[in-house]
Design brief:
The chain is mostly beta strands. It has 2 domains: 196 residues, no CATH class; 74 residues, no CATH class. 3% of the residues lie in helices and 46% in strands. It is built from 2 helices and 28 strands. The strands form 10 sheets. Strands 2, 3, 4, 26 and 27 form a 5-stranded antiparallel sheet that branches. It has a 5-stranded antiparallel sheet with strand order 18-10-9-22-23, with no helix packed on it. A 4-stranded mixed sheet has the order 1-28-24-25, with no helix packed on it. Strand 2 and strand 3 form a beta hairpin. It is globular.
């Protein structure tokens, strides 16, 4: 199978062989935009190109984009909570809306540390801030030590606030990103990490998506391969949908509308051509940079016939 990309977009071709003459593949295309006057304006230079390999970026760890399909549309937001008009605050909210309905909401709190009052540990007053990273490093998690070994948090090894004992927690930081309904109150609370950015590939992704019968996997939901936190996954995103984010710019709001998809995918198998619609797979948002990326995907299966010409052609309407 050959991938022919006649656009300025980043593109990948995923291929696998389930067995015998049956093959599966997926065309993945990422288009770059500038956010301008509540519109997405196409740009030729990719901001975050697709990658077949996992990588560490300024936005944190990112997984490989080379997967067959997802179980919804990821809506990750990479960047910083930003105080309104640049006036320092000790806490604020970041909200993500789809068609003006709240999709997810996160409490962002200034730096705090566990303080020993003589009667136990309490969190001291949060420090004021103008900006706060929304990445995994500020979500609950991290690592603790046991018997000389470093034990990473099962759902977010990159974060902070995870401790084995009060002695270890004393003087140490709490997470800055919290669930608005379940704020941390005790040093040994064990909340689920929250972030509008990428969700690590771990036990959190397995919940509700993977079932085992003994040692054998019984069910694997495609949502296991979604890279956003569960709350940041939409069932479907189409042209005309309105995305809104509060708390990530100095003026308080960032809004834009999903544009029409002018990419075209043609699958050529031998003498036959099949025209298929690329579906929205991700909307990645970078408020600090005024940029957004839309990933499109089309998974398909085919029978491999020896010497047959197989081409995935991607073009773009003017």
């Amino acid at each position: 199978m050959e991938l022919v990309n006649k656009t300025n977009c980043s593109a990948l071709l995923f291929r696998t062989a389930p067995g015998g003459e049956n093959f599966a593949a997926a065309v993945i295309v990422r288009k770059s935009f500038r956010i301008e006057n509540e519109r997405l304006v196409p740009v030729k230079t990719p901001f975050l190109p697709l990658s077949a390999q996992p990588r560490m970026t300024e936005f944190g760890p990112l997984e490989s984009d080379l997967i067959y399909r997802r179980g919804g549309v990821d809506l990750p937001v990479f960047g910083k909570a930003t105080a309104l008009n640049g006036r320092p605050v000790d806490r604020m909210r970041v909200r993500v809306t789809v068609n003006r309905k709240i999709k997810h909401e996160i409490e962002v709190v200034g730096d705090r540390f566990w303080k020993n009052t003589g009667e136990g540990l309490v969190a001291d007053r949060p420090r004021f801030f103008k900006e706060m990273s929304l990445g995994l490093s500020n979500a609950y998690g991290g690592a603790t030590e046991w018997d000389g070994l470093e034990i990473p948090h099962g759902e977010n090894p990159y974060g902070k606030g995870f401790y084995r004992s009060a002695e270890e927690a004393e003087g140490k930081p709490l997470a800055n990103l919290e669930n608005v309904k379940y704020p941390v109150q005790r040093w040994n609370d064990y909340p689920q990490p929250v972030s509008p950015a990428q969700c690590p590939m771990n036990t959190l992704r397995m919940k509700g998506n993977v079932e085992y019968e003994g040692l054998q996997m019984k069910r694997l939901d495609p949502k296991f391969y979604n890279s956003a936190f569960p709350e940041m996954i939409a069932e479907k995103i189409t042209a005309g949908d309105k995305i809104g984010i509060e708390g990530v710019t100095r003026n308080g709001k960032l809004n834009f509308e999903i544009p029409a998809n002018n990419l075209r995918f043609i699958l050529k198998l031998g003498e036959k051509e099949h025209r298929r619609e690329l579906l929205t797979d991700q909307v990645l948002i970078f408020p600090s940079h005024g940029r957004a990326e839309i990933t499109y995907r089309f998974p398909f299966r085919y029978i491999m016939k020896p010497l047959e010409k197989r081409i995935c052609l991607i073009t773009e309407d003017e």
